[in-house]
Structures are given as C-alpha cells and as structure tokens.
Amino acid sequence: MQKYGIDVWANGDFFIDNDQLKINYNSKPSLKEIVLNLRNEGFKGPLLLRFPHLIKKQVDMVFQSFQKASKELNYKGAFKAVFPLKVNHQPNFLKPLLEAGKGYNYGLEAGSKAELLIAISYNNKNAPIIVNGFKDKEMLSLGFLATKLGHDITIVIEGITELKNIIEIAKKETHPIPNIGLRIKLHSSGVGIWAKSGGINSKFGLTSTELLSAIELLKKYNLIDKFTMIHFHIGSQMNNIAPLKKALKEAGNIYANLKKLKAFNLNTINLGGGLPVEYSQNPKKLQTNYSLNEYSSDIIFTMQTIARSKCVNEPDIIIESGRFISASHAVLIAPILELFSSEYSENALRLKDKNPPLVEELYELYKQINKNNALEYLHDSIDHMKSLFTLFDLGYIDLIDKSNSEVLTHLLIKKAIFLLKDKNYTELLRIQDQIQEKYLVNFSLFQSIPDFWGLSQNFPIMPIERLNHVATRLATIWDITCDSDGEIESDKNNPLFLHDINPEVEDYFVGFFLVGAYQEVLGMKHNLFTHPSEATVVINDSGFRIKNMLKSESIMDILDGLNYDTKELITNIKSNIANSKYIDQQDRAKIFEQVSTYLHDIGYLKTVS
Ligand SMILES: *Cc1c(COP(=O)(O)O)cnc(C)c1O
Q1: Domain CATH code at residue 249
Q2: Are 66 and 168 contained in the same domain?
Q3: C-alpha 456 – ligand 1 centre gap (Å)
C-alpha cells in the first residue's frame, strides 16, 4: 500500500482505512465525508479545514513534555509559553488556541501594534504577553496601558534607542510599569533558511557591549527591578538541535553574568521559537533530526547545569513556538479539475496510409509491448520520439507525423506503467521521470502554500481517497493561476503518485497538509484568487460538526478591497451591454443578471459533478 509518508509527517493525526484517509480522533470520520458534506452545502472550490482538536493536541504536548523534563531533573524554574501571533492570527485558529491554553496560562507574543491589540483584548487572564520587534513610542505606550489593564506583559527591547524611549515614557507614567526584557545577539549563529534571525549579524538584539550599557541605563533610571527576561530567537524550523544547544550555553552564561551584575529580578530566559515540523514524506529524507522530548530535556538540562555551576537560581523558561503549535491543525482540500494527458487516447491517432518508418516502428512497439519487454520497449519508444522530433525540426516529417509520435509514445508509457505496476516504485519512477502527468488542481499555490513558491518549502500532499488502489501516475500539480511558478513538480526525493481518473465523470480530491503555520497570512491574491472557503471541524464521539463557516470572498468584495469603485464597474458593464450590437434590447436585463451572479460568486473554478 502507498502511504504517502503518513508515518513520517502525520504524527498519528490521520490514518488510512481501506480506501479512505481518516482523522484519528473520536468518531474517526474520513476527510471525504467532511468535504462532501460541505460541497452539498454549496461550498465548491478549495476548502481549508481546521481541526481544533489538533491545536489542543500540540499545546498539550509542548506543556506536558516540559513538565515531564522538569520533573525528571527536579528543575526549580517554571515553564511558560506564548504563541507568536505572526504565525497565524485567524480568529478561527486563535480562539480554540486560547481555549486549549487556559489551563496552562498559555500567552501570546506580539510583534506589531495590531498584534499587540489582539493580545490585549483576547489573551487569557494572567497569561503572559511578550512584545517583540521594532517599536515606536506609541507601541511602547500601548505596552504600559496593557499593564494597567492587568496584563502580565514584558516588552523586549531590541536596541538601545528603544530602551531610552521606555525610560522617557516611564518618567512620565505612574505605576504599574511593564516588565522589560532584553533581546541578546548571540555569536552562535542561526539555522535553516531563516538563519538571519540569530547570530552576530542578525537584525535584532543587543551585543555584549550594548547589553552592559543597557544594564547601566536601567540602574541609573531605577528600572533595574523591572528587568526580568533575556530573549533570543535563532530561527524558524531549526531542523538540527546542535545550534540550539550552543545558543543555550551562550544565553545561560549571559544570564548568570547579568545576575552577578545585580540584575536581581532577572529570572527568565526566553528561547524564542524554532521547534520544527517534519514536512517530509520520505522516511529516508527527514528534515528534522530531533524530537520535542529531546528539545525540552536539552533545554532544562543545559539551563540547570549552567545555573548550578554559576550558583544562580534556575531560570524560568519561556518558549515562543509557533510553527510546531499551528502547522498541523489546517488542511487544504482541493478538487482535481483536469488531467493533461487525457487527449492521448488511441482515437487521437491520425495514421496515414504511408507513415515515416520510425512512426511505423513506434506503432509496432505499441502493439507488441508486454510484461517482459515493457522496459526495453519503453526506452526504445522514447528514443524514437526524440529522433522524430529532430526530423520535424529539419523539415523531414510533418505535423501529423509529429502528433502521431507524441500520441504513440504516451500510449506506450501508459501501457508500460500498467504492465509494470506490480514492480517497485523506483523502477516506475525512473521510467516516468520524462513524462509526468499534469493534474490541474483547483487552488492557488500563491494563496495557500506561498512558502513553496518563496522558499521551496514542501508540504505533504496526498489523495484523500482510493487509497486501496495503486496510484500509478507520477504527478505534477498545476494550480489555476496563469503563472508558470504555480506548479509543483514531482521530485525524485519525494515522488507523488496520483490515480488515473477521469475528472469529467468522477470526483477526486488531494489534500495539502501542515498548512496551518504562516501560509494564511503570507498568502497572496495572485490572479485575484483569495483565501479559500474555510470550516472548523469539531469531531465528537458520534460524528462531526461544522462550525465557523467562512465563504471565500466574492469577486465583488475582492475588487472592492482593491479600491475599485464597484458602482462604476457595474455602470460600465451595463453600458457595454446596452451598446453591444450583438445583444437585443429584451435580452439585456437577463445578460446583466448573469454577469451580476458571477460578480457575487467566488473566483475559484467549479467542477461539473
Ligand atoms: C517568528 C518568531 C517566532 C516563531 O517561530 P516558529 O519557528 O514559528 O516557532 C518566535 N519568536 C520570534 C521572536 C519570532 O520572530
């Protein structure tokens, strides 16, 4: 059975049962039944499904892992966590997240005024708020206000100027004053494609020298008692733990040194985010080399060792994991619209009475191919096709001959794949590498998985049904934008096989998994495809319930959002209809009504069935 690497990336959240991909929770519904349910309600096009139980699962896992590690080592400091809002701000994600975090005092991290305002209004009572990123005086004042509203807020200073601004505001403000954190620039460098977040040349943080000046300033202005936290963040998707361990040692020693410099209320080390997600579908090509439990144990152990050797209190630990918490909760399901080799059927052949010898030979190969000669014939046919193309370029054969050679070669490949389908996949892969089937999928890569476009970050992809049938077509996925970058080629390390289907008569859906982190807010409206329709799926013991249905924006709303004067747009269309010499007067209203229906509908394509 093909498992699409589900044992590698799914963490037991999904499983294959017979032909269906199912959700491994409570009543264990299949993705297909959820999708059909929504499509029957009229939600066509791509669908983003959110699973709140998977948000809770990740939150529980993180807290329980650290609690276990602390207990084992009898660690004295507390463990805390905040969710970095930039990773996913959608209310339908955030509300279940805050619900899941209540019992743990799970807080929020904000990096902009807008995010800070979300945190101030939605954060769980008594849970921490941490403010990172560049801040102006307004944003700092907002932090002071949050303190007055009773929030446990820490403003992390990224540079000396920010600290000076805080001091200035503090002079004018009455109590309470927010806690102050200092972001440290580590000489241990960052990791992964986001490496610029850490290291000596990183955009953020104070060098050792600036750190000493900051402490002097805090003392001079009687704010040293407000200094409670040091912070660093060495990068997202830290797929290797070694750089983190190095950073921990550096940060632990900075902590101990600052304690000796009489930073008497400093009690917390904030390690930022970076806990990685395994996106690989290939067990032999893993992206990450450590587990959550290794992460928590290493952190607790390193901090304890340093604290003991320097005779300082074991610090509270706070992490800002975003990707690890949110990635798994969202799945994009998109229908297949078309396959692009379906035109290569036998009746597309236009054989002449007399064909060029190579075309005749191709035809013979096609007729005589069998299980034993399949591989050999296949290679011959590809060679023949190439030679025929050269003959065409030189003017020796015509367009009909060229078409016949294309059709015959594709037919041969299809037949060979069928004959060889019991053989192993590497073999099939080798054969098919030259000819991948193009699957047109009803989604926009730029909107729904922008990190694939921008950073070559792959996401697990698999069909959600027919899983008891061997899929034999090596697939290239085309999205519906007219951009040639809107394509996911099957790569050698991660071949994607899909089923041979006829979209005109049957439904077929593919799922894109682990899309809950970063993708939604980074997604762009290329070709004016906006966010897909979304649903929250609550799974109980007897079935499932759909909540928070959010329809994809209508074309009218999209245009309005781009500041088009929609009244003017409608007036223009109406007058174009009125002025058309092809439209009779009595048909005008009906035609306008049709255009109007399109304007108020979503922009994604629709499958017939
Ligand atoms: C982006 C960011 C995070 C989240 O990182 P993940 O890799 O998603 O866990 C945490 N802290 C800071 C300061 C960040 O900029």
Answers
A1: 3.20.20.10
A2: yes
A3: 19
